[in-house]
Design brief:
By secondary structure, the chain is α+β, with helices and mostly antiparallel strands. It is built from 17 helices and 15 strands.
Length: about 525
């Protein structure tokens, strides 16, 4: 404004340049001094920032924290400096509540211009864990896993941290679950929906506990005790335990949803991993039937044969998947020009297809193994399923290598675990998360797929409820609509479908992709009431 006034006066005194030339010169000098001061300040911060980043990169978190703390004294709202300061505190295992505050502010304050690294949620979860706030830690770990993917989560050991949180471990001394009034943020009244969601969680928890008690009581009966226990009695116990696990899973989702509402987060149910006794039993059975060794954090081999596989007809064999580094043995099962349905491989999983550029043939391989001994054991099972010409092939990356070369590499790679992140065929058959029990409406069951027109009509009928088309272990194909919580609601819908021309529609009970007797499911539900 001062400059504009002087310019206007200068227009009236055009023939008196000396006076105004001096004024303009003074203004230019003042402006340049201000710019030089700002530039100098930026130059002074650059060595501190560079030194802090270098210290952070080499793992000197004490020096890095001091550097970023100094930067925050000048740039108090910079989300990136808050991020690095918070991560340093987590790495130093110091003052987790301050780390929580820094990382929360960093994530909230990030924007297009000033972003924070994508692992911010992971470090926030670690800060919550060190502070003893296990529920928030689990929620943040799950959010990070969903955003970054399972591979990144495993690389950062997220499953182990979640397990520690579920067991109440990982808090630093003297920080275990601080009272809310010790936190900087004032208490906020809980939303109205919190009580409703929590009530739903308690109802589901009660049903889970009831189903567990039913299973325990069944075990005490003479019909189920000892080796003389009947197959039918033991089957009912397994069904009851699986139903209990299913209700427990739903209850945990509701608990997590309630915590999300209480924390002011978006209401989205995120499953909290729980100890799965049913999954443990399935893994024990798998290990007994299949001698190939497996571990949870990584595997030395990936192979199994499902006794009664159920296939989604929309599922396809993955072609040219990513491969682990180093030596991998595979079992070549078949070579085809056209795509092959997963059901062709009779429950063998995983199966992958590899096709070279310029070729119209696809080689199909079963399993992945670090050692030839494990591959040879699996080869016997593959041949027992009818693939008499199957044989072992050794790979280094994507390249086929000789048996002699493989023997040399096995000394280096034979005991190194790998992560099987590919989907293959049937890779989700062994699931550590209990399948959900639900009543479903069966529209049709046939030995061959229905015609395209008939299938399209069923899809239109299922609009909004979902349609699954599965091929069962005996080769028959079943068409299922919806997932109903109660038998009555499923029966009402089945009656409606029957009145619309599908007279064979009926209600069935399913645990995931496993069909269980309808009466067994109904009796269990009645006992839970």
């Amino acid at each position: 404004m001062i400059g504009l006034l002087k310019i206007r006066r200068c227009e009236k005194n055009i023939f008196r340049p000396g006076k105004y030339l001096l004024a303009f010169s003074l203004m230019a000098i003042i402006s340049s001094l201000q710019d030089t001061s700002l530039f100098s300040q930026d130059l002074q911060s650059r060595p501190v920032r560079q030194q802090a980043l270098e210290a952070f990169s080499r793992g000197d978190f004490e020096k890095a924290y001091n550097g970023f703390s100094d930067l925050l004294n000048t740039y108090s709202k910079d989300p990136l400096y808050k991020y690095y300061s918070g991560v340093c505190l987590v790495q130093l295992k110091r003052d987790p509540l301050t780390a929580v505050t820094l990382l929360e502010d960093a994530i909230r304050g990030a924007n297009i211009v000033r972003t924070v690294p994508p692992d911010g949620l992971f470090w926030l979860a670690r800060a919550y864990q060190q502070a003893g706030d296990y529920n928030k830690a689990i929620s943040s770990f799950n959010s990070y896993s969903e955003a970054a993917g399972k591979r990144k989560a495993r690389e950062l050991n997220v499953p182990q941290y979640i397990k520690e949180c579920n067991e109440g471990r990982g808090a630093l001394a003297a920080t275990e679950i601080k009272k809310n009034d010790e936190r900087k943020e004032p208490e906020k009244p809980l939303p109205e929906k919190y009580d409703r969601i929590l009530s739903e969680a308690l109802v589901l928890q009660n049903k889970a506990d009831s189903a567990s008690r039913i299973a325990d009581n069944m075990k005490k009966t003479p019909a189920a005790s000892g080796e003389a226990g009947t197959v039918d009695a033991k089957k009912k116990i397994i069904d009851a335990e699986t139903i209990a696990a299913s209700f427990q899973k739903k209850a945990d989702e509701k608990y997590n949803e309630a915590h999300a509402v209480a924390d002011g987060m978006s209401v989205q149910a995120t499953p909290v991993p729980q100890k799965d006794t049913i999954g443990e039993n399935r893994q024990k059975v798998t290990k007994e039937n299949n001698p190939v060794s497996m571990v949870s954090a990584g595997v030395l081999s990936s192979f199994r044969v499902a006794e009664k596989p159920v296939y989604d007809l929309n599922e396809k064999v993955q072609i040219n998947p990513p491969v682990p580094q180093g030596l991998i043995y595979r079992i070549q099962v078949a070579v085809f020009r056209n795509e092959v349905a997963p059901s062709y491989f009779k429950g063998i999983t995983p199966v992958y297809g590899f096709r070279t550029d310029g070729s119209d043939r696809t080689n199909y391989y079963a399993g992945m193994f670090r050692t030839k001994a494990d591959a040879s054991k699996a080869l016997l099972q593959v041949r027992q399923k009818g693939f008499k010409d199957a044989f072992i092939v050794a790979f280094s990356g994507n390249k086929i290598i000789s048996a002699d070369r493989a023997a040399v590499l096995e000394k280096e790679w034979g005991k190194k675990f790998f992560i099987d992140d590919t989907q293959g065929t049937g890779s989700t058959a062994v699931d550590t998360i209990p399948p959900t029990l639900s009543f479903r409406v069966e529209i049709a069951r046939s030995e061959k797929p229905l015609g395209a027109e008939a299938e399209e009509n069923i899809r239109k009928l299922a609009t909004g409820r979902g349609l699954d088309i599965w091929q069962l272990s005996d080769g028959t194909i079943v068409y299922l609509i919806g997932k109903f919580i109660t038998f009555e609601s499923a029966e009402d819908y089945a009656s409606l479908v029957a009145r619309n021309g599908y007279r064979d529609a009926k209600v069935g009970a399913w645990l995931g992709k496993k069909e269980i007797p309808l009466e067994t499911a109904r009796q269990l539900f009645e006992k839970l009431e």
